[in-house]
Amino acid sequence: MVPCRRARGPITVDGKLDEPAWKSAHTIEHFAIPITHRNPKQPTSARLLWDDDTLYLAVVMADADVYAMKKKHDSFTWEDDVVEIFLKPSGLKHPYYEIHVNPIGTTLDLGFGRRGAGTIDRWTPWESGLKAAVHVGGSLNNWQDTDSGWVVEASIPLKAFTATTPKPQLGDRWLFAVCRYNYSVYMENGLELSSSARLTTGNYHQFEDYDLLEFVE
Fold first, then answer.
1. 186 with 110: CB under 8 angstroms?
2. Per residue in 74-106, pLDDT tens?
3. What is the bridge-based pairing of β-strands 44-50 and 2-6?
4. Domains of the chain with bracketed CATH
């Protein structure tokens, strides 16, 4: 069970994570490679907060080779370095949601009516209203130097989910996973996948393995 604590004070989405509210957030540090559950070579940590209107996400990623080319919203951002959050609100049998941010700040949001029931084109019309800001420590797309990593700060309006579920109330629990594609010249196979959930397959859509996120004070 992962606590999603109520944000105490305003959050400005600028990629800096300097608001006092973030200091009280629970930090998720148990990212693991799918199937093997080994620790990734380049670690990730994530934090989540909420208020009556918004879900907030902060992700800090070590990355020696920050890479992203996709600049168009709803493009195939998983072909870049990218952080993804999957959300399956309480009581939903089939619908779930997937939101991406890459190091350029390009976003992708998908509202799935059911897993496997169509290609990406069917699910991209859903718009979350996401706001995201990114900070890159180093240079983007220069594989010949060494970067330190990148940070994502994002806000997701809770009204985005009201077509399938009401806004969360205190004590509600949603299934979730924060996942990452990390392409790098420093990786043995050029790519490392990792997730906050202990995935038993290489498929990030394996929501049976997701963790529970509990909305708390």
1. no
2. 999 999 999 999 999 988 999 999 999 999 999
3. parallel
4. 2-216 (2.60.40.1190)
